[in-house]
Amino acid sequence: MTMDKSMRMMEANKELVKQASFETYTEGNTDVIDELVSDSYVLHDPTSPEAIRGREAFKEHVESIRRAFPDLTTTIEHTAVEGDLVAVQFTVGGTHEGPFPDLDLEPTGETFEMDGMEFDRIEDGQLAETWLVFDSLAFAQQLGAVPDEDSATVH
């Protein structure tokens, strides 16, 4: 593979991840999932009790996040690509305005902002697998689902 072709592939993989794994959540366009995401896609999300498998399950997951956080924003801070792997450091935030089934949490009206990392595997030009890494305890604390360290009392 020539350097030029390799650079084009790296840029294409970055754009694929941006569209399939970030813009679907912020813009709510789940139609692109059929084109950009593998039918056998797997999402490993620390707030989900088990892996999310397949396009339809991913669409449902995106829609549930959009209902819970309709003003969700993401900022991609850094991206690194090596072969078929894409690593992304991001900031995400929003207001909890709808039920969040993964945490069995009714709307709190609280806002959150956190940093996270995402590792994506590309296969045959589609998003095949995603591993999310973020502080899910701090996330739950910001939503008021669990007390934060400052408000916890020791007996």
Q: Which H/E pattern describes the elements?
A: HHEEHEEEEH
- SS-based class: alpha+beta
What is the CATH class name? Alpha Beta
Low-confidence stretches: none
* CATH topology grouping: Nuclear Transport Factor 2, Chain: A
Nearest-integer average pLDDT: 91
Q: Tell me the Rg in angstroms.
A: 17 Å
Q: Please tally the helical runs, counting DSSP H or I stretches of 4 or more residues.
A: 4
Give an overview of the whole structure.
This protein has 155 residues and is α+β, with helices and mostly antiparallel strands. The chain has a single domain (3-142), classed as Nuclear Transport Factor 2, Chain: A (Roll). The protein is 32% helix and 34% strand. It has four helices and six strands, in the order H-H-E-E-H-E-E-E-E-H. It has helices at residues 3-27, 33-36, 55-68, 136-142; strands spanning 37-44, 52-53, 73-82, 85-95, 111-123, 126-134. The chain has a six-stranded mixed β-sheet with strand order 2-1-6-5-4-3, with helices on both faces. Strand 5 and strand 6 (126-134) form a beta hairpin. The mean pLDDT is 91. It comes from Natrinema salifodinae. Pfam families: SnoaL. This is SnoaL-like polyketide cyclase.
List keywords for this structure.
155 residues; alpha+beta; Nuclear Transport Factor 2, Chain: A; six-stranded mixed sheet; globular
Short overview:
With 155 residues, this protein is of the alpha+beta class. Helices cover 32% and strands 34% of the residues.
Layout of helices and strands, plus pairs?
Elements lengths: L2 H25 L5 H4 E8 L7 E2 L1 H14 L4 E10 L2 E11 L15 E13 L2 E9 L1 H7 L13
Parallel strand pairs: 1-6
Antiparallel strand pairs: 1-2, 3-4, 4-5, 5-6
